[in-house]
Specification:
Blueprint: H1 3-17, E1 23-28, E2 32-38, H2 47-64, E3 73-78, H3 81-103, E4 107-112, H4 114-124, E5 130-135, E6 141-147
Parallel strand pairs: 2-3
Antiparallel strand pairs: 1-2, 4-6, 5-6
Helix pairs in contact: 3-4
Length: 149
């Protein structure tokens, strides 16, 4: 059984145990394995700033990421929540990039989890005039965006 089918089965079992009969759709993308959850009761995963959704994504990546043949990871979304939040995070990164360029002062974003930091770093990498780095030694780290000298 391939890793995508195993992850899908695992998620269906966990969601059933939580009393959430959600549909699980797996999409293989160049950026990662995207898993969309939909159905009645999905908002339960989105309560308290989507802590349950974040935890589910962390568990899946910890348990299954090493089974992938590349450096991609799993992204779990529920009812389009993550897609919208990702868009907001990218916009904030672009705003901070512009602020760093106009002020000449490094800008901080965070604390951010590994998934959010990766999105910020990828967004910053689109502009050759700025650079980013993560600082901190915990799970949540701060990203510093500054102009290249």
């Amino acid at each position: 059984m391939d890793v995508q089918a195993r992850v899908s089965g695992f998620l269906k079992d966990v969601l059933a145990a939580m009393g959430l009969p959600l549909a699980v759709q797996v999409h293989d993308t160049p950026d990662g394995i995207r898993i969309d959850l939909s159905g009645e009761g999905g908002e339960m995963l989105l309560r308290r700033k989507a802590e349950a959704l974040e935890a589910l994504q962390q568990i899946v990546n910890t348990g299954f990421r090493r089974d992938l043949k590349d450096d991609r990871s799993f992204v779990i979304d529920c009812m389009g929540y993550r897609r919208a939040k990702d868009g907001e995070l990218r916009e904030m990164a672009r705003f901070m990039m512009q602020k760093a360029k106009t002020s000449g002062t490094p800008q901080e974003m965070g604390p951010l989890n590994p998934y959010a930091r990766r999105l910020v770093h990828l967004t910053v990498a689109e502009d050759p005039e700025v650079t980013s780095e993560s600082i901190g030694d915990a799970f949540l780290k701060t990203v510093i965006i500054s102009t290249k000298r």
